Amino acid sequence: MPLFDLPLSELREYRPERSEQPDFDDFWSRTLAEAAAFPLDARFTPYDAGFGLVDVYDVTYAGWGGHRIAGWLLVPAGASEPLPTVVQYIGYGGGRGFPHDWLAFVATGCATFVMDTRGQGSAGTPGDTPDPVGGDNPQSPGFMTRGVLDPDQYYYRRVFTDAVRAVDAAVSHPLVDGDRVVVAGGSQGGGITQAVAALRPGLMGAMIDVPFLTGFRRATEIVDTLPYGEISTYLSIHRDQEEQVFGTLSYFDGMNFAVRSEVPALYSVALMDPICPPSTVFGSFNHHAGPKEIRVWTYNKHEGGQTFQIREQLLWLREQFKRDDGPGTGRGTWWR
Questions:
Q1: CA atoms of 118 and 95, how far apart (whole Å)
Q2: How far is Cα 70 from Cα 83, in angstroms, rounded to an integer?
Q3: Superkingdom of this entry's organism (predicted)?
């Protein structure tokens, strides 16, 4: 697909009006308080991944509703002190896969925590976490309209809560430095990252790669591809529910989280992306309240920068984790 969205010069200034419900903050405070009523009960079981230089733990913890969420924790073999850590979230349909899928960041000497996504894990990479809650309304195949008539029942209320609790689970491990945690993800994982960057205090940064789950209405108006197309399909049948649907989605829109996030952030965008249109990405980026950078991949679709973007992330991550190193901090330079 050739360039189809706004010109880059306009995208850099694009700051669309946000649609936000007046109880947005109360909704998320209540949601996280309800989740906190369940003990985190994070369990780390040593796992034989066949590695010699990385230790792996098979993780479970209590997410939304106390439901058990799976994950991985990877740390350099023999680590004995708390490490800076990257908490990673997964793209749409994918699961946590296997530990060898997540070696890039642990190769720097930091720890990596990977959250499985409830109900997913049958597209691309396998997952191990069911979603025992549905929603009262019929839905378009996929996850975008599951419970979409009620913010309390909407699927991503559970996922975003799981993701906040994933940070809590990670920092409960003695080899994770709770003061140096960066959250990261691409596509759906990028949208989850954007939400967690606003909802979970104390983070050091966020790497938000070609994010999904932002600018819902514009996305459905300019592309018909999945997953946003699930919303369009649903509304093509349930014609009388448009405002109710977008009212629910406003509680989960990345722009509304971006304006509340003050952590340093590294974004990426692909200008030929028909899945997550560039204007939806720039909408969140331009609303992000904290220090921010964006890497632009002009001739790419939803794959974005791929290995080139990972290189950008590694360099950016090094600078974030080195910020507190130096005399008097009690922390040595960990990056080799």
A1: 8
A2: 21
A3: Bacteria
> Could you write out the DSSP letters of every residue in 103-153?
-TTGGGT-EEEEEPPTT--EESEE---------SS---SSSTTTTTT-TTT
State which H helix or E strand residue 246 sits in: helix 242-249
* DSSP line for 279-323: HHHHHHHHH--S-EEEEEETT--TTTTTHHHHHHHHHHHHHHHTT
Angle at Cα 260 formed by Cα 169 and Cα 254, nearest 5°?
80
Residue 92 labelled as part of a binding site: yes
Q: What angle do CA 128, 132, 136 make, to 5 degrees?
A: 140
Q: What is the pLDDT of residues 238-270, one digit of tens each?
A: 999 999 999 999 999 999 999 999 999 999 999
pLDDT for the residue 313? 98
Are 157 and 135 a contacting pair, CB within 8 Å?
Answer: no
Chain mean pLDDT for the chain: 95
Domain map of the chain by residue range?
A: 8-320
- Cα 59 to chain center, whole Å? 18
Over residues 137-191, the pLDDT tens digits come to 777 679 999 999 999 999 999 999 999 999 999 999 999 999 999 999 999 999 9
- CB count within 10 Å of CB 322 equals 15
Name residue 70's beta-bridge partners: 60
Active-site residues, by number, are 187, 273, 302
In the structure, what pLDDT confidence band is assigned to residue 124 with cuts at 50, 70 and 90? confident
